[in-house]
Write a structure and sequence with these properties.
By secondary structure, the chain is an alpha/beta fold. It contains 3 helices and 5 strands. It has a 5-stranded parallel beta sheet, with helices on one face.
């Protein structure tokens, strides 16, 4: 079975997309055997249009506008069948707690998020203090 990484965003404009390219480059460089799936919640991603030529070197699949639901009594997404998906890693690139809770409902081995100062992460996040 192929190893997979989900990178989650709430959607990004061109500037956000450019800032996140080094992250994608580093993931692909360190873990070349992993399939990288990029998911947005409500917005669209520039990786599927303006930056598609660059991003296609790193991203294997894009899921746009997943419209995630944090409530356990409802489906994770009414648009995509996410309950059957499983990932080795999920990287949450946004910090909204409700979106993070919704994302936590997707099966994974390791979940990493800066939301709520890393509270939801499986791995401790070192946050540098601003001086």
């Amino acid at each position: 079975m192929q190893k997979k990484i989900l990178v989650f965003s709430n959607g990004e404009k061109i500037g956000d997309g450019l800032i996140k390219l080094p992250l994608l480059n580093e993931i692909k460089r360190r873990l070349p055997e992993y399939k990288i799936v990029w998911m947005t919640n409500r917005g669209r991603t520039v990786y599927n249009n303006q930056l598609k030529n660059i991003a296609s070197k790193y991203i294997d699949q894009i899921i746009e506008k997943a419209n995630l639901n944090p409530f356990f009594w409802q489906k994770i997404s009414n648009i995509y069948n996410l309950k059957d998906l499983s990932f080795d890693y999920i990287f949450d690139t946004q910090k909204a707690v409700l979106r993070t809770l919704a994302l936590k409902r997707i099966k994974c081995s390791v979940f990493i998020s800066a939301s709520a100062v890393g509270f939801f992460s499986d791995k401790k996040i070192q946050i540098k203090s601003k001086k």
